[in-house]
Design a protein that fits this description.
Layout lengths: L1 H17 L5 H13 L10 H5 L1 H13 L9 H6 L1 H22 L9 E6 L4 E6 L3 E2 L2 E3 L5 E3 L4 E3 L11 E6 L3 E6 L5 E4 L3 E6 L7 E12 L8 E5 L2 E5 L3 E6 L4 E7 L2 E5 L2 E5 L3 E5 L5 E5 L2 H4 L6 E8 H12 L2 E3 L9 E7 L4 H12 L3 E4 L2 E4 L1
Helix pairs in contact: 2-6, 4-6, 6-9
């Protein structure tokens, strides 16, 4: 009886929300369900009741976003506003995750490419699952081995290869974590390579990076830890920070401790919450930075805060191993704000971006077509 009462109450509250009759407190409760995927007695809601819920909730969200009673704001300007893009990305992201949890079978493991994936108003030709734990290790002799364990730690190096480096190569749609000989932990993002020795020298610890990595360096006052990244050197004794070295310009974002950044004859020391960017002109620019944004990938999120569509597409392309076509159809002046789980399928991400940009997307093989 209590279960039936709980189910009836949940239905009644959802009905009020869809009709726009919720109080502020009740609306927050409904949104809390969407964000946390912890609906009360969700199993008690009948299949028939839930079957049309997605489209109705989506319509209600659009009504809230495009409220005609809001003066001086037009539908077109809403699409171009980073603040409303934030609302769409955040709200719809939480909603998409909730609906995915509602309708997915726990025993169903979809293939990487699935045919005819339905969206809210159109169909994708196929879908692509998010990236996972993929990497390979290359020995000093050039021998390659796919990594099956969740992380690499303290590889034994043959005597004839002593003093030479191994290379961990993380492909597109991959990420990996490695624990170095001194206990330093390194999380590697997609399209990243890390070169390191199995045993560090007695007076220093040195690695080389291309791509992006989050470092948690073990403290050792007698041996500085140095990262060589595209002509930039980052030096620490023991701290936590993120390095983005996908391009010639290298950005170092400090979480805790202190970091010295060197480029050519110039150097600077940054504090927690600061970012040092080395440029092509060999200057070092230090700014206050948003750590939540810079290390979002390590939290398994896409986090956008004023990013243009080109920036967003690069992140998505790396994580899903896809190429975007017809990029020129979306200008670079519009910026977007919000977060999306990196555990989402590509179709879910594109549905959210479709709302934010006002464009349609399709997936054909490993190409994302902007329509």
């Amino acid at each position: 009886m209590k279960e039936q009462e709980s189910s009836d109450q949940a239905k009644a509250l959802l009905k009020k929300y869809l009709e726009g009759q919720c109080t502020a407190e009740e609306e927050q409760q409904v949104l809390h369900w969407f964000y946390t995927a912890e609906q009360p007695e969700e199993e008690q809601l009948s299949k028939e009741y839930r079957s049309g819920l997605a489209s109705r909730i989506n319509m209600r969200l659009e009504e809230k976003l495009f409220d005609e009673s809001a003066p001086t704001i037009t539908r077109a300007s809403w699409f171009r506003s980073k603040w409303v893009a934030a609302a769409m990305l955040v709200v719809v992201s939480g909603f998409s995750y909730w609906m995915y949890k509602q309708f997915s079978s726990p025993n169903h493991q979809p293939t990487e490419l699935a045919a005819e994936v339905p969206a809210h108003d159109h169909t994708f030709h196929n879908d692509i699952l998010p990236g996972g734990t993929y990497a390979k290790i290359i020995s000093p002799k050039g021998e390659e081995q796919q990594l099956l364990d969740p992380y690499v730690q303290r590889l034994e190096q043959p005597a004839d290869e002593e003093g030479k480096n191994f290379l961990v190569d993380v492909p597109k749609a991959g990420s990996y974590m490695i624990i170095l000989e001194d206990g330093t932990k390194v999380w590697l993002n997609a399209s990243t390579k890390l070169s390191y020795p199995t045993h560090f020298e007695s007076d220093q610890r040195q690695v080389a990076l291309t791509g992006e990595a989050y470092f948690q360096v073990a403290k050792d006052a007698s041996r500085p830890f140095r990262i060589n990244a595209n002509g930039t050197t980052i030096e620490v004794l023991g701290t936590t920070f993120n390095v983005n070295a996908y391009h010639d310009e290298v950005s170092t974002s400090l979480v805790e401790g202190s970091v010295k950044v060197l480029k050519e004859s110039k150097q600077t020391i940054i504090k927690p919450g600061q970012q040092a960017k080395t440029t092509l002109t060999n200057t070092i620019e230090v700014t206050t930075t948003d750590l939540a944004k810079n290390i979002a990938w390590q939290r398994e999120e896409f986090y956008f805060d004023g990013n243009n569509f080109k920036d967003i597409s690069l992140q998505i392309a790396r994580w899903y191993n896809v190429e975007f076509e017809n990029m020129e159809s979306i200008g670079t002046n519009s910026t977007y704000k919000g977060s999306i789980s990196r555990n989402s399928r590509l179709s879910e991400v594109l549905q959210i971006l479709a709302l934010a940009t006002g464009r349609k997307f399709d997936i054909i093989g490993r190409k994302v077509i902007i329509q």
